[in-house]
Amino acid sequence: MRHPRPDQRTTPGPGQESCWDYPRPPALETSSETVRIVLGGEVVAETTRSWRVLETSHPPTYYLPREAFVPGALREAPGTSHCEWKGQATYFDLLGGGQVAPRAAWTYLDPTSRFADLAGAVSVMPGQVDRCLVDDEVVQPQAGGFYGGWITSRVVGPFKGEPGTWGW
Fold first, then answer.
1. Residue 4 confidence (pLDDT)
2. How far is CA 111 from CA 33, 88, 91, in A?
3. How many folded domains does the chain comprise?
4. Does residue 33 sit in helix, strand or coil?
5. Residue 162 forms part of a structural domain
6. Among 59, 62, 57, 61, which residue's Cα sits nearest to residue 24?
7. Which three-class secondary structure state does DSSP give residue 96?
8. What range does the domain containing 85 cover?
9. I need a labelling partner for 98 at 20 to 30 A (CA). Which of 37, 50, 74, 128 fits?
10. pLDDT tens digits for range 106-146
11. CATH number, domain at 65?
12. Between 112 and 9, residue with greater pLDDT
């Protein structure tokens, strides 16, 4: 059963974009923003070369090159999942500052051709680490605990993940 999409969408202001203008299937774009991930009080990843996956109703998901992570920050974790757009994901525990965030990171080792640039790149669930930052702005995690979107002041919603949004 499909649920209706929201009637009230936030109008983007200057310098903002609406997740409702993102395409489906999703788009992939490169980013030169400074992306930083902190766990246990330590920076475990930092880069100015990342990718954003942009999908209707979702805040962007950022993927970092694996080499952006400090040595020892990623530990293979059990299990896989499947994305209809990107293919099969494998998971990592994220380690930093004496803390472990279980299955907080994932990658697509052999993504679909549309997302070939993401092969081996790693994304992180913002809600499972101390903080993720984009150009020094602290990211708000996408609600619901299932999706890995990164909410910044650059993008407006409403966003999928809140109660009642599963069928959007």
1. 55
2. 23, 7, 14
3. 1
4. coil
5. no
6. 57
7. strand
8. 34-156
9. 50
10. 999 999 999 999 999 999 999 999 999 999 999 999 998 77
11. 2.170.150.40
12. 112
